[in-house]
Amino acid sequence: MPEEEEGLAKELKDENVRKVFQRVFDRQTIQAIHSLAMKGNFKHLEFLISEGKEALVFRAVDDSGSFKAVKVYKITASTFKNMLPYIQGDPRFKKVRNEKTDLVMAWCRKEFRNLEECAKAKVSAPLPNVFLQNALVMEFIGDKEGNAAPVLKTIVSELDWWDVYRQVVENFARMVFKAKLVHADLSEFNMLYQDGKIVFIDLGQAVSLQHPKAREFLDRDLKNIARFFSKKGVQKSAEEIKEDLRKLKAKELS
After folding, report:
1. CATH number of the domain at 152-250, please?
2. With the C-alpha atoms ordered 115, 13, 5, 76, is the resulting torsion angle positive or negative?
3. In this structure, what are the phi and psi dihedrals at residue 131, rounded to the nearest 5 degrees?
4. Dihedral in degrees, nearest 10, Cα atoms 237, 239, 242, 244
5. Coil, helix or strand at residue 121
6. Each residue of 176-224: pLDDT tens digit?
7. What pTM value is reported for the model?
8. Contact, 56 vs 74, CB < 8 A?
9. CA distance 176 to 181
10. Where in the chain is CATH 1.10.510.10?
11. Which residue numbers are catalytic?
């Protein structure tokens, strides 16, 4: 057994996590995870939080007992062609080759950078820690017991949906006017809700305002938000949400 795989066996605490690695990840990914662990970014990958077409998110724990989220993009199974429209045209990523591995690596790097920009702009999103190749270590969003925060779509309890709307629009405004980014896939599926607070996630596809399709992506985000909140009794059209964003810009968000 190669050294990194032997070492990684100690870092994969759960048998189901080991099975996921055997099923999905290639040697390069295993090396990246092992390297991040050896550098002290986390001690164990404890269990799988979520799995999508392009990535898996694990809960990890570090030497102090603090939880981390580790997002690993699939090189072997990624629908990499879907990534192209969000990378090509972004002036921050001009030299990415149109090859599967390069695109996946760029996507991971892009999410890390987008999270950094959001942190500077005080957008409610996970704080990034470090990335290596196709693996990203970031803040774990959940409760003190380590239960991951639910996706907004799955919330069935009654909430003050006007307050939720206010949070979404305020963070949306910070993202656009301060971070200079468009999420490009903002919906109830890409927001978490923890302790009364909205958290934006999945920022890999977020693009610079200079991207040629930024306006198109922005309009799509506005329509998604309008559609979701209309079901919750918050009747706002996409144009009305855009006007709310303009008002927040005028107030110079702190």
Report:
1. 1.10.510.10
2. negative
3. -135, 155
4. -60
5. coil
6. 999 999 999 999 999 999 999 999 999 999 999 999 999 999 999 999 9
7. 0.90
8. yes
9. 5
10. 152-250
11. 185, 202
